[in-house]
Amino acid sequence: MRIEFTKMHGLGNDFMVIDNTAGLYDLQTDIVRALADRHHGVGFDQMLVVARPSVQEAEFDYRIFNADGSEVEHCGNGARCFAAFVREKGLTTNKQIPVNTSAGLISLEVLGDGQVKVLMGVPSFVAEKIPLEPSLATALDIGVSRYVLAMDETAPPLSATEKASLAGQTKPLESIEFCAVAIGNPHIVIPVNSVDDAPVNTLGPWLEVHPMFPRRVNVGFLQVIDRHNLRLRVFERGVGETTACGSGACAALAAGAQNGWAESSAKIRLNGGTLTLEWPSIAQNVEMTGPCTKVFEGQIEL
């Protein structure tokens, strides 16, 4: 099987984008994993697949596969690349593009300055929608899905620097406080003093697969610079830490606004760059605006 693809990135979060509207490719888990291998394949954080729409309201179905082969519900950085890809390939001439994901419809808008705006969906703080098992943690405020999770014998040890970054957490550091948010896919947001020192690659892998999260979870570490400027690092399920995570940024804004840490309009700086976010009201979509970049086109024979 020969696969034609475009390599793209959104703030360094990199993607292999494929037009499968003709249904030519059978993308099994082992194929995705092989293609994701950065030494023997193409290499990517996620594979994005353009497919024929399965609902009348959408122009396309938007499918997302992690590097480990698992299919996920949403990817905000990928959505911007998806919009640029379908326009460049002549699959649509529309600047506003409704697409269907496994989490529902989202809207993409190609702007005149090379940026893309994505209506990412309405955040949910309901345990069943995230999903999470609330009995495995202590609820601080169910209304905004704030919990404290015990650091039991399965938890990894933290360095002194990592502990210092969590100084605003429960003392002594025997548990982790977080806010849980669903925005197409599951996220938790952990407030920290410093994202540079945060235990992203220590706590991230442990929390991702914790029994509290039946579909695993994306783990965000949020530093509030001021109420309109935030910093974020995200350990993504099935991938690891990425340079940027669009849905993670939206989850962080929603968590910050609902918990009084930040305003509902803010810029979030990730390691790969900055996203601009707006959340007009609790019942409306989070609007994310940011860039996307084409790297190269290619073919690979499997």
Descriptive account of the structure:
This protein has a 19-stranded mixed β-sheet that branches. It folds into two domains: 2-119 and 291-301, Diaminopimelate Epimerase, Chain A, domain 1 (Roll), CATH 3.10.310; 134-284, Diaminopimelate Epimerase, Chain A, domain 1. The radius of gyration is 19 Å and the shape is globular. With 302 residues, the protein is α+β, with helices and mostly antiparallel strands. The longest helix has 14 residues, at 246-259. It starts with a strand and ends with a strand. The protein has five helices and 19 strands.
Secondary structure tally: strands:
19
Strand content: 35-45%
Envelope shape: globular
Roughly how many Å apart are the termini? 5 Å
CATH topology of the largest domain: Diaminopimelate Epimerase, Chain A, domain 1
Mean pLDDT equals 95
How many helices does DSSP assign?
5
Helix proportion:
10-25%
What is the CATH domain class of the largest domain?
Alpha Beta
In short:
This protein has 302 residues and is of the alpha+beta class. The protein has helices at residues 29-36, 76-88, 160-165, 200-208, 246-259; strands at residues 2-10, 13-19, 46-51, 60-66, 71-72, 96-101, 104-110, 115-119, 138-141, 146-150, 175-182, 186-191, 218-226, 229-236, 240-242, 265-270, 273-278, 287-291, 293-301.
